[in-house]
Design brief:
Length: about 240
């Protein structure tokens, strides 16, 4: 009798074991396997594993991001530099300031990149000497934006600016002034944001000059900055 009960108990255990491993009819679908634990107090409890080697997180699809890096800025007169002359390079902070200026023009829904946008780009970059000089004299990005909107007008928020808003005549002349000034110095260093800022100041009819003048910049400060960049070996800090 006892052996019969043991046999029946073992058979029962075996049948339970086989029922636990019974294949799932939906096994073709990627599912997380579960385990069922039986307790006399809690009944049947389903336990889910924390991770599974065959599952993938449901991540959102993203588009690949690409960027173009340039080490020069547009010039209206490339022939100004002879083939025998060493072409001056823009500093990385100068290039970044120009790129940030384009971005600010797009943020404000401007169709063009003017000297006011270049001025904002110098402030956005933030680590260059010209930006530090402006901030020391009370310039902020918010103030420059407000003055720009006063001069140019409120943006059309339904307008989509091009990826690279074309330069205004004043903005192009400001870039060319910076290049010419570096060539005049005869120094082998880079064209910096300080050259770029003085190029903006040189365009008296540009919005950038008018904004700088309205916020307290003057010829005396410009001469001090010009004397600094004219020193041999001047570099962007």
């Amino acid at each position: 009798m006892s052996s019969h009960s043991l046999f029946s108990s073992a058979a029962t255990t075996c049948s339970h074991h086989h029922s636990f491993n019974k294949p799932d009819p939906f096994s073709s679908i990627s599912q997380i396997p579960t385990q069922k634990l039986q307790s006399q107090w809690l009944g049947v409890v389903t336990k889910f594993p924390l991770k599974h080697s065959h599952t993938r997180p449901n991540l959102p699809k993203t588009r690949p991001v690409s960027a173009n890096v340039t080490f020069s800025l547009p010039t209206a007169n490339p022939e100004r530099i002879n083939s025998t002359d060493k072409v001056p390079k823009w500093s990385l902070k100068g290039i970044k300031s120009f790129a940030m200026g384009e971005l600010e023009a797009r943020k404000l829904k401007f169709s063009i990149t003017g000297t006011e946008a270049i001025l904002m780009g110098i402030l956005v970059e933030g680590t260059n000497r010209a930006s530090k000089l402006l901030r020391a004299n009370g310039f902020t990005l918010g103030k420059v934006r407000e003055e720009a909107i006063k001069l140019i007008g409120k943006p059309d928020y339904f307008y989509f600016s091009p990826e690279h808003p074309p330069l205004t005549e004043s903005a192009q002349k400001a870039l060319d002034w910076a290049v010419d000034e570096k060539l005049k110095s005869g120094d082998d260093g880079e064209i910096t944001t300080s050259h770029l800022l003085l190029g903006v100041w040189s365009e008296k009819e540009g919005a950038g000059y008018k904004i700088m003048a309205a916020l307290g910049f003057n010829d005396e400060k410009a001469q001090e900055l010009h004397a600094l960049i004219s020193k041999p070996g001047f570099v962007e800090d």
